[in-house]
Amino acid sequence: MNRPICIASTLLIALTASMAGIAIGSDFTLNIFGNANMDDRIDQTDIDYIQEIINGSKEATMLSDVNLDGTVDLSDLQLAEELIEDRAERISLIDGNKQNLTLELPLERILTLNMRHAIALAVLGGEEKAVGVDNTVGERVELFPRLSQLPAVGTTSEPDIESIISLQPDLVVTFTNAPSTDALEDKLPEGMAVLRFDLSRSSSLREEMAVLGFLLDDPDSTQRYLDWYDRYIGEIQDKAARIEDEDRARVLMERERSADTGPTARWAYASGTGFTDLVDLAGGINIASGYMEGNKDLETEFVIDKDPQVIIGLSYKGGYKSSDPESMKAYYDEIMKTEGFGNISAVRDGRVHIISGDFSIGPQLVVGALTVAKWLYPEQFQDVDPVQVHREFLSDLMKLDYDPTENGAFVYPE
């Protein structure tokens, strides 16, 4: 039986006919137990490392106790060999909450509870394993021509447990904090596992996608994504590093509200989200950072006093589910007309931008980061075309005939 851990079948066949490994950054740790030497793959070097731990010549590592019994011994050596040789009946990993999770193999039936996880499934070659999705996927038929036809199981915040159970998934993939364990794990039968990854932060996205790719057993698709991610993230970081501190743009990051709360506050993002990562990667200065934590109300007077040079508003209108840019125009107009904003540099200089959360956060975070970088530093990023990179993601990684210049509404003004 083909196990979902045989990554090295096309990448790193060195000492056996089936070795697991993904060639990714040298500073990266694949957080799967059995990766004893804490590098970016599971291969023969891990077998050697576990043997040295048993012999007493090396210290145990965080990932060397393959069976999680508190001791590194011959049983761990055997389990690591089974992982490499594609014979394992279970696999243990570290999830997005830094918790250990053991999964029974093989994983053949997977259910996702957000479009972000469905995108990951499609990119990493696991689309055929999907048995159910949440409502956000069904609302985006052009992005998910196959997955949108699968049974929908409600929303992330209100999953339909009865529907989930009826689909008999081996694995449910969702966010680290939603739904709550009370609303999900505690209601699922034994053996129906839940993997929690946010797939949103630049600090963990690559790692999470690599672990998912390992589980889905499509090394080519996984490597293709990691190469794409590294190429463009590297370009952003290289260009941003050359921007002098005194030239860094002051930015207000905010989100569209579902209801008008008046002119005294904006719903701003300061830290700790994939949205704030977009500005951090590009080398901008988030005016709310250090003044508050997370995302919450920010006094309008504070914004006026800090005089942001760029305002970026996050909207979940438009995106892949609508091709009408006017769906984001109302939010843009609301920012432009906010009392007291007329003298803010961003408003005065025409540097107010609305960005869709559909494409700027998640596995395609690279596209959002390039878009923001070009808004902040148009000269430094003049040779970068975020639309073309978005097109690459859709055509090369998701295998879609989808042109983002003709479909969807991703930024305003365009």
From TrEMBL:
<protein>
    <recommendedName>
        <fullName>Fe/B12 periplasmic-binding domain-containing protein</fullName>
    </recommendedName>
</protein>
<dbReference type="Pfam" id="PF01497">
    <property type="entry name" value="Peripla_BP_2"/>
</dbReference>
<dbReference type="InterPro" id="IPR036439">
    <property type="entry name" value="Dockerin_dom_sf"/>
</dbReference>
<feature type="domain" description="Fe/B12 periplasmic-binding">
    <location>
        <begin position="109"/>
        <end position="384"/>
    </location>
</feature>
<dbReference type="InterPro" id="IPR050902">
    <property type="entry name" value="ABC_Transporter_SBP"/>
</dbReference>
<dbReference type="InterPro" id="IPR002491">
    <property type="entry name" value="ABC_transptr_periplasmic_BD"/>
</dbReference>
<dbReference type="GO" id="GO:0000272">
    <property type="term" value="P:polysaccharide catabolic process"/>
</dbReference>
